[in-house]
Structures are given as C-alpha cells and as structure tokens.
Amino acid sequence: MKKTIALLFVAVFSIAAWSQKWIRPSEAVKYQGNEVSFIGLVSSVYHADGIKGDRTVMNIAGNNSLNVLQLVVYNSDRSNFSTTPETAWLDQYVQVKGTIEMVKGQPQITLHSARQISIVRDGSPEQE
C-alpha cells in the first residue's frame, strides 16, 4: 500500500513538473492565461512610485531590442523580495515562471515572490 501511494505521488509530481510550458518571450501573447517559464534579458527597469498601483516594471527584450514582455512587482509584494528589482535584474538574463496576462495590449507577468525569478548564471541563451 505504501509503495502504491509513493508511486502515485511521484506520478502526479512528475506530470506537474513536465507540464510546465517553456516559451520564448516573443511568444507570450499566444499564452495569455497560461503559466509559463522562459529565459529573457531584462533590458530596462523603472519604478513608478506615488501613483495608483505603485509598482516596478521590468521590460524583457526580444528581437531588434523591442520589449516583448513586462514583469511587474507591485509595492505590496516588494517585501517578498530580498533585493530591489531596480538593481537586481537590470541587464541580466533571468529565468521567470508565472501566468501571462494582457494589460493594455501588452503581455505581462506579475511577480509576487522571489521564487518566480532567478538570474541565469550559466551564460546567456541565444537571443531570439
């Protein structure tokens, strides 16, 4: 019985791990509402403070240096990060996991915790 439960647990966990969808940042528009993972370059960062919805916005560069996807950290979630987004990820290749939503025609992922983003340390991937 314990073996059966253990096998069932491993099977469910494996399905969840393999079901993660890896995309190129330029494909984000196609995956609205889906949880995805990707690696991309944070090309610019700005912190919008003092306006409704205070937030930090990080732009992910695509072909021809056009921004193809935005990562957003709202001020209400900043305490979930040990470093400030404005300095931690600028000009870095990052691996991101999150749900794509469309905001004013732009694909966006809201980052709620540091577990959703990490710097890629093994060199930069080939740009799309």
Note the total helix count: 2
CATH topology: OB fold (Dihydrolipoamide Acetyltransferase, E2P)
The percentage helix is: 10-25%
SSE order, one letter for each helix or strand: HEEEEHEEE
Identify the notable features of this structure and list them briefly:
OB fold (Dihydrolipoamide Acetyltransferase, E2P); 7 strands; 128 residues; 16% helix; alpha+beta
Topology overview:
Elements: H1 2-18, E1 21-22, E2 35-48, E3 55-61, E4 67-74, H2 85-88, E5 93-103, E6 106-110, E7 117-119
Parallel strand pairs: 1-2, 4-6
Antiparallel strand pairs: 2-3, 2-5, 3-4, 5-6, 5-7
Structural summary, described in words:
With 128 residues, the protein is an alpha+beta fold. The protein has one domain (22-119): Nucleic acid-binding proteins (OB fold (Dihydrolipoamide Acetyltransferase, E2P)). Helices cover 16% and strands 39% of the residues. It has two helices and seven strands, in the order αββββαβββ. It has helices spanning 2-18, 85-88; strands at 21-22, 35-48, 55-61, 67-74, 93-103, 106-110, 117-119. Strands 2-3-4-6-5 form a five-stranded mixed beta barrel. The longest helix is centred in the N-terminal third of the chain and has 17 residues, at 2-18. Mean pLDDT is 82; it is low at 9-18.
